[in-house]
Amino acid sequence: MKETAAGKGTVAAKKTADVKGTAAGKGTVAAKKATVVKKTAAVKAPVVAKGTVAAKGAAAAKKAAAKKAAAKKAAAKKAAPAKSAPASTAAPAKSAPATKAAKPESRTALVRRARRINRELADVYPYAHPELDFENPFQLLLATVLSAQTTDLRVNQTTPALFAKYPTPEDLAAANPEEVEELIRPTGFFRAKTKSIMGIATALRDQFGGEVPGRLEDLVKLPGVGRKTAFVVLGNAFGVPGLTVDTHFGRLVRRWKWTDETDPDKVEAAVGALFPKSEWTMLSHRVIFHGRRICHSRRPACGACPIAPLCPAYGEGETDPEKAKKLLKYEKGGMPGQRLKPPPDYPGRPAPPLRAE
After folding, report:
1. What's this model's pTM, rounded to 2 decimal places?
2. Does some domain include residue 82?
3. What segments bear the compositional bias annotation Low complexity (predicted)?
4. How large is the average pLDDT for residues 172-182?
């Protein structure tokens, strides 16, 4: 019985061992499976991580692209006016020659251009002359003083009576001021001008023997006589070269970029340096003629200007040729000139006397 019990115990022990072994085996299998699952998870984890990184990179790239696109749009908006301009307007801005043309003109180029303008004006106005009627230096001196703040035409219509009554400095120096005032009233500022011309007559009588001096330093000492008046007299009565810097002359030489100066003495010096001295007097006449006939102050006739290709200010006035022709004055516009007694080669009509105006 003991043995049987022992046998049964042995069998039971074996069964228990088998059960344990089976359980252990199952545990081992489970452990192996867990290990495989972990390894699989470990393998999948980097893949997921890599996917996440790639997704983040793609998002960053999209943001960068969006920023670039926004920057381009902003730049396009800023540049929009230039891009939206007509092709005819944008083309010159893109061309290299237009940029080069903006560079300062060299001294040599300026001299050449200025002298070419003078030659062109000589062809257009071969008859250019002082537009004051006179027969001697005394008459020219008085007429030039009277021309301040009025036209040469008005002076030419006024001086015949003055010169007839007071032909010499001695006659004018002894005149009744009120009578002189009445004679020159049409020229404006007649009281001040009467003092000037009577003062000139007195100085000529007392200091220069009744003769008009032919030197600049003597002329500018006379009452109401400055450099401009002196050069008019010297250049046209004595043949001494000089530049007459009046309002027309100053306006045109600044438009042509010969100088930026506004002071008459500085303009005279700057322009005089561009030309031989022998050209000064006729240059003055040509420039003044052009200013009075074509290159007006307020509305220059650019479309009818013979020197338009040489003018930096082209386009400031009327550029249409037909409209520009209507702006021309004196002989260029078919009108009478300013002189009652113009030179024989003047192609226009004489000015009418004061009473017939």
Report:
1. 0.71
2. no
3. 77-101
4. 98
